[in-house]
Design goal:
Layout: E1 2-3, H1 11-22, H2 24-53, H3 56-76, E2 83-85, E3 105-107, E4 115-119, E5 124-127, H4 133-140, E6 145-146, H5 158-163, H6 171-174, E7 181-187, E8 193-197, H7 205-216, E9 226-233, E10 235-236, E11 240-248, H8 251-262, E12 269-274, E13 280-288, E14 297-298, H9 309-319, E15 323-328, H10 329-333, H11 344-347, H12 354-360, H13 368-373, H14 377-386, E16 387-395, H15 399-409, E17 415-422, E18 437-447, E19 453-454, E20 460-461, H16 471-477, H17 481-489, H18 492-495, H19 499-503
Parallel strand pairs: 2-3, 14-15
Antiparallel strand pairs: 1-19, 4-5, 5-9, 6-10, 7-8, 7-9, 11-13, 11-15, 12-13, 12-17, 16-18, 16-20, 17-18
This protein binds flavin-adenine dinucleotide, NADPH dihydro-nicotinamide-adenine-dinucleotide phosphate (NDP) and the ligand CC(C)=CCC[C@@H](C)[C@H]1CC[C@H]2C3=C(CC[C@]12C)[C@@]1(C)CC[C@H](O)C[C@@H]1CC3.
Length: 509
């Protein structure tokens, strides 16, 4: 456990800080909302034309050749500094800017933004790593398919979900994002192109190597090679999610209901929200064709004038009754995008007001990357002191204990609870029980009124969040056996930093 001391501020500085925080919405409404709309419209049109022209598969070879050439040039020029991707710090989905990029050779992977091919026989889709979740759902759902796991913010990338990690409400059935991956195409430190994948019975040394590499990539944060494409599983889907809300009145009831629903094999999605230590709701979802059996109405939560999803859920829990409704699938997947979970209320405090929603809701949300880019240093300091951003992945039977720790230390609500299945397979996140265990992601995001203490309970911490762990604490949490071996075998130690040196506090500001 390590404490973060608030820096001493005088009264004037506090006032400036408060004004910037309270009136940021003016800048957001006047500049960021229109800029976000332009940005998204450009990408929408661009992707539409690329799809219609079918040019992405041909262009992929050229893009990969360029990356191989950059890595070979790095080798030939004497390997002076280590390598990382050239993705700019402001466009990534974490609060922090990566400091490490400044002193490294940046390999340009920014053009890898296209969906390459869908194989309806093998039920897979092959995509480049900068493809976003919003892009994938827009492409797959009209074809009647979906990824088994769709992390909910539109701008999360496939590369980030694989090299970092991705969880979502369907994790109870499919695990983490890495568990829906079939193969990774990688440019390694020597400039070679390899395909890492799972083999049922690896029979040659090469197959064994590629099998081991496949398990090493998730959570490695680009420290084993550059991902240039990924083959992902797809599943058939239906146009709606039939969502049932079960209000809970105690933490014990929450844990029991979450477990019961997570273990029910008929459920596709299970998610919990805690609005206070005791009061919460468990939501279970199943694919559906809509309200044909008169068990509920359609609620198009994604429409611009609709309430933010979590406030809708909170209103339902206040009735104390079980409620069922049908949500269009894509709107369900991106249900937390419009309100950026519950972060937008700090930025546009009246963003959920009915008048605002009808007038300007269609431009929401502002892009997270633009918010990040335009956070002034004064506000960053305030966020440093008062804002909590933590995701702890813990076995479900430790939920109660974990909530108690977060309640005592930061008392930030709502808390996001996302159960997911953690198989016993090799990799950095490792449980060695020999069987699958139900874990839960406990996500805490928001402003705390308490003195901020960063605590890490037993489990795995998602590394996009703020981490104050020492190197030894880090490697106590994660399993390094395959990782270290792969780093040596593929000459990564000279080519890429150690994963801890990318995610520790000193590497980000
Ligand atoms: C000095 C040294 C030499 C090494 N030499 C080799 C080598 O020659 N060849 C090589 O491949 N690795 C080699 N390794 C890597 C080695 O595989 C791992 O470091 C080690 O086995 C990890 O142990 P573990 O208990 O975490 O994984 P284990 O559970 O032992 O897993 C090892 C391998 O078994 C397979 N496996 C296990 N569970 C599952 C599962 N649930 N689903 C699918 N696959 C599974 C995977 O291939 C995995 O890579 C070496 C490591 C070291 C330190
Ligand atoms: N529901 C969820 O699961 C959510 C998850 N998140 C977190 O957000 C992060 C994803 O953010 P996103 O902006 O998409 O990704 P980032 O750009 O932040 O990438 C995350 C890491 O993956 C590495 N990486 C990305 N692409 C490649 C590639 N092609 N080759 C090699 N390494 C690569 C990056 O390396 P480098 O440093 O070299 O750029 C970086 O270390 C994840 O880490 C995730 O944990 C956030 C919100 C929700
Ligand atoms: C569901 C999981 C696993 C994680 C959700 C994480 C998000 C809540 C955060 C990821 C990036 C964060 C940023 C902000 C809020 C919280 C996230 C969206 C800001 C928008 C907060 C305001 C700052 O000025 C900019 C931040 C950018 C990153």
């Amino acid at each position: 456990m390590s404490a973060k001391e608030p820096s001493a501020l005088n009264a004037f500085e506090r006032q400036v800080e408060w004004i910037m925080f309270r009136f940021r919405w003016i800048f957001v409404i006047l500049f960021l909302l229109p800029a976000s709309l332009i940005f998204d419209s450009y990408h929408f049109v661009r992707n539409y034309f690329i799809y219609k022209l079918q040019s992405a598969p041909r262009a992929h070879g050229r893009k990969v050749a360029r990356i191989k050439r950059q890595v070979r040039e790095w080798n030939e020029s004497g390997k002076k500094t280590k390598m990382c991707t050239a993705r700019s710090g402001w466009s990534t989905m974490s609060f922090r800017f990566p400091l490490y990029k400044k002193n490294m050779t940046q390999i340009n992977t920014d053009q890898l933004v296209d969906i390459l091919e869908i194989d309806e026989k093998a039920l897979t889709v092959r995509v480049e790593p900068m493809v976003t979740m919003g892009q994938i759902t827009r492409f797959l759902l009209p074809l009647g398919y979906t990824l088994p796991i769709v992390p909910e913010l539109d701008d999360l990338t496939v590369g980030g979900m694989i090299n970092g990690c991705g969880v979502e409400a369907s994790g109870r059935k499919y695990g983490m994002f890495q568990h829906i991956c079939v193969a990774y195409e990688l440019v390694m430190a020597d400039g070679s192109l390899v395909t890492a994948k799972k083999f049922k019975n690896p029979s040659t040394q090469e197959e064994t190597d590629m099998h081991t590499l496949f398990f090493g990539i998730p959570w490695s944060h680009g420290t084993l090679g550059f991902l240039v494409s990924a083959t992902l599983r797809i599943i058939p889907c239906r146009p709606f999610v039939k969502l049932t809300y079960y209000p809970t009145k105690t933490l014990e009831e929450m844990e029991a209901t979450l477990r019961e629903e997570a273990e029910n094999r008929e459920n596709e999605f299970v998610e919990g929200l805690l609005f206070s230590k005791d009061r919460g709701v468990v939501m279970r979802g199943r694919f559906s064709d809509g309200p044909i059996d008169n068990t509920g109405k359609i609620n198009s939560i994604g429409r611009w004038y609709k309430k933010w999803f979590y406030t809708h859920v909170e209103d339902l829990t206040k009735t104390g009754k079980v409620h069922t409704e049908f949500i269009p699938l894509r709107e369900y997947y991106h249900r937390h995008s419009k309100s950026i979970f519950w972060e937008l209320k700090e930025i546009v405090p009246f963003g959920n007001n009915v008048v605002f929603r009808w007038l300007l809701g269609w431009m929401c949300p502002p892009k997270i990357s633009l918010l990040k880019l335009t956070t002034p240093p004064t506000l960053r300091k305030l966020y440093d002191r008062k804002h909590v951003l933590q995701d702890m992945l813990v076995p479900l039977d430790r939920l109660n204990e974990t909530i108690n720790v977060f309640h005592k230390e930061v008392e930030v609500y709502p808390i996001w609870l996302c159960p997911f299945n953690q198989p016993s397979c090799p990799g950095m996140v490792r449980q060695r029980s020999g069987k699958s265990i139900m874990y839960v992601d406990v996500g805490v995001y928001g402003i705390t009124e308490k003195k901020k203490i960063m605590t890490h309970t037993k489990g795995f911490q998602m590394m996009y969040a703020d981490t104050y762990m020492t190197r030894s604490e880090f490697w106590e949490m994660f399993d390094s056996s395959i990782y270290d071996w792969l780093r040596t075998k593929y000459q990564c130690t000279q080519a890429f930093p150690d994963v801890y040196d990318k995610v520790c506090k000193a590497a980000r500001y």
